[in-house]
Design brief:
seven-stranded parallel β-sheet; two-stranded antiparallel ribbon; 11 strands; alpha/beta; globular
Length: 306
């Protein structure tokens, strides 16, 4: 694709689809982490976002065909909660909208991080998401893992909540291959959500491919920000990325998203933003088709990453 990559006529359908269990989603989705504040996510001095703009971004995302939104109850600033913004903007929810949330970590009302939830505490976190979103069940819940310990007890607790009808499908986040295998021995896993992007964790390439072979969605986070993580993208892109962007009349951010989607049909993107223009550009990246030569160049940049 060589036309202007910010065209508002491009919708998320251009990215293709994948199924999370029995739920079909467009491969370009939306991450809600940056919706509640300006500046670094979870930053103590972050300025809360404008409520009206945040709500308009969510509604615009759905208008552009986004039907996969990633959120968490711990996505909040001093005045804004991502879940409550989603509820206000989109309820009653479209039938095809899939909301994925995550549990495990938590923050107290002042924003301080709490110890990782115990199996017994996970039900309270699931119920917190249900209340904030105004739902009677959650489409997909990811167990967010901190550390390398066994996840069997915690994943087993979520499986019981699934069996009770509070959760439809289960996933895992920030995991190693052995965590996925451990979870799959207990219940089906529809997605793995891990940090990944050009130059970020090339060691996870095999894990990404393994997920595809097993029909498990691989959902990278920080695919734009990379090692900038919660602070966002640094704006320092390699000459190779910039050259591909120029060739397509696209931005480096769009090239990063497109490269991620080219890693396999099971790879989903969840770029987040509170900026309406960035939203349109991110969705349009799902239509960007990279040539074999361009992918080879970008792959070499990736392999040189940390």
């Amino acid at each position: 694709m060589t036309s202007n990559m910010t065209s508002e006529t491009i919708t998320a359908a251009a990215s293709g689809t994948w199924k999370l269990g029995d739920l079909t989603v467009n491969r370009i989705g939306f991450g809600a982490m940056r919706l509640t504040q300006n500046g670094e996510a979870f930053g103590t001095g972050a300025v809360p976002s404008d409520r009206g703009q945040a709500i308009s971004v969510l509604r615009r995302a759905v208008e552009l065909g986004v039907n996969h939104i990633d959120t968490a109850a711990f996505y909040f600033s001093s005045l804004r909660s991502a879940n409550e913004l989603i509820n206000q903007a989109l309820a009653p929810y479209p039938d095809d909208l899939v909301i994925t949330t995550k549990v495990g970590p938590g923050r107290d009302p002042s924003g301080e991080w709490l110890p990782h939830a115990t199996p017994e505490q996970l039900r309270g976190q699931v119920e917190e998401n249900l209340r904030q979103l105004g739902r009677d069940h959650l489409d997909v819940v990811n167990l967010r893992v901190v550390g390398t310990d066994s996840i069997a007890e915690r994943f087993g607790a979520l499986t019981r909540l699934r069996d009770a009808g509070l959760i439809r499908h289960l996933g895992v986040s920030n995991v190693r291959p052995e965590h996925l295998a451990e979870a799959q021995a207990i219940a089906p896993v529809v997605c793995v959500q891990n940090m990944y992007g050009i130059g970020v964790r090339p060691g996870h390439d095999t894990f990404l491919r393994t997920c595809g072979e097993q029909g498990v969605a691989f959902v990278p986070f920080y695919s734009i920000a990379g090692t900038g993580r919660t602070a966002g993208a640094s704006g320092a892109d390699s000459d190779e990325v910039l050259a591909v962007a120029r060739a397509h009349g696209a931005s480096a951010t769009q090239v990063r998203l497109a490269w991620t989607l080219h890693r396999g049909p099971h790879v989903l993107a969840i770029p987040g933003t509170g900026n309406p223009d960035h939203l349109v550009a991110n969705v349009a990246a799902g239509a960007l088709r990279l040539s074999e030569d361009e992918l080879a160049v970008l792959d070499s940049v990736h392999q040189g990453g940390a």
